[in-house]
Amino acid sequence: MQALIKSGDLPNIRKEIVEAGTFRQATTCFPSTTGPAYLPFLTGCFPGTINIPGIRWLDKGEYHRNRWGRNSFRSYCGYEAGYFNADMPDDRPNLHELFDRPFNVFSMITRGMPKGHDLTAKVKPGLYLRAHLRHIWEPVDDASHRHLMLAMDQDPEFVFAVFPGVDSNSHLRHPRHERTIQAYKFVDYSVGQVAEKLKRLGRWDETLVILTSDHGLSDTHTHLDLADFINRRGMRTLAYPAIWTHRPKASVMISGNAAGHVYCLQNRNGLPLLGDELLHTMGDIWPALIAEESVDFVTWRQDQTTYAVESAKGRAWIQRQGNGLCYLPQTGDPLGLGRLDTPLDAQQALDATFGSDYPDALVQIEQVFNCSRCGDFLVTSKPGHDLRYTWEWPEHHGSHGSLHREHILVPFIYNRKGWDDRPARTTDIFNTVLKWAGKPIQENTDGKVLC
Ligand SMILES: [Zn+2]
Question: How much distance in Å is there from the Cα of 35 to the middle of ligand 1?
């Protein structure tokens, strides 16, 4: 996005948004994947806070109570996408519920939408299915643009519009493939049309436009199928779409294909496995996983206040001490952050890691473990690699989901100047939008106000 704006390929975004406003970067959440990574914008909360820690997940407690219960495991990639709204806790309002005249174009978060305001509700299933089968996403972006323009005619107070073409073409082809670049340019065309229309309606000056993304992307040349990897080593593994696996000992739930939750299903109390108990349960699989070429790092709960991170570079602890987090290398420094032994609050932890290879790693690892649907451990793949192959069709040539900066840093572009310029998270967008619109701030979120 940055390069394309600089090279003049996105003239409308440059003129209407960047030159009149601000171009900066923000961090998204871990796992950096569509669905969970919409929660920061729309609820101000991390996926762990909402208990939706991946595009696929399992809940060990629910699973052991009733394997085939509705809330035992989930994949939002198929028909279960329709459960997303109900999976969000009632006491966390989303922006659609906080504005009087909200409109939605293609987001799966539509709870509280007034009747008729989810503009693409009827056309989405058919359009997405056709695009998926034919590998052609241009008609979806085109529909996105047309519905966005229709929203402008209906006196909107808030519009959330998704253009899925950049992500889809990146997975199908390459993050910098010509077709992907075309998808960026189409967003630019749409921004130009929206600006022109709002000017004509006399609403441009009073409209805040934010362009952002739920994740970054990197190209993918090598696949490791994490479920197969564990299965072949003697732990029968439950993974989508093969959810009927008989008496599984583990489950793998992949997000964005560069991150995966792993659940150990033998301990029938459904409680998470901590520290040595987890390593003992995984046995020889553990060192094999750490040594595997495609694996970037593995992270797990060491005890109630400590999260461990291990890669071929060694092991470190992320530890909660009072109101802050520390990063303490033990046998090595897998995240390359050095020793951070003074407890850092959420903003300090972001500041200290924003320029690193793993922006916001401390807060993101803690938040994802902070829910009942998180795995006993998470695995991430290195840039260039991903973790899902056997059941992935079509083959992915681009991935996201991990904590690497290529996936975590997203554009945060808006047509205003002078906001607080400290490192930002996408969770900050939620209350910033509310305040900007003159609405009351929602307490009890994971974000801050920037305007
Ligand atoms: Zn994607």
Answer: 10
* Class (C level, CATH) for 2-52+88-217+404-436: alpha beta
Centroid of ligand 1 to alpha carbon of 20 (angstroms): 30
Q: How far is the CA of 199 from the centre of ligand 1 (A)?
A: 33
**pTM of the predicted structure, to 2 decimals:** 0.97
DSSP per position, 371-387: STTS-SEEEEEPTEEES
CA of 347 to the centre of ligand 1 (A): 28
CA distances in angstroms from 105 to 2, 29, 45, 146, 379, listed in the order given: 25, 22, 21, 10, 33
Whether the Cβ atoms of residue 389 and residue 225 lie closer than 8 Å to each other: yes
Domain positions in the chain are 2-52+88-217+404-436, 220-399
- For the chain (length 451 residues), average pLDDT per consecutive 10? 96 98 98 97 98 98 95 93 96 97 97 96 96 96 98 97 96 95 98 98 97 96 96 96 93 96 91 96 98 98 98 98 97 98 98 98 98 98 93 88 98 98 98 98 96 96
Q: Which of 410, 393, 346 is nearest to 38 (CA)?
A: 410
How far is Cα 190 from Cα 21, in angstroms, rounded to an integer?
18
The Å distance, Cα 191 to ligand 1 centre, comes to: 22
Q: How many angstroms does the Cα of residue 36 sit away from the middle of ligand 1?
A: 12
Residue 126 CA to residue 442 CA, distance in Å, equals 36
Task: Report residues near ion ligand 1: CB below 5 Å.
Answer: 167
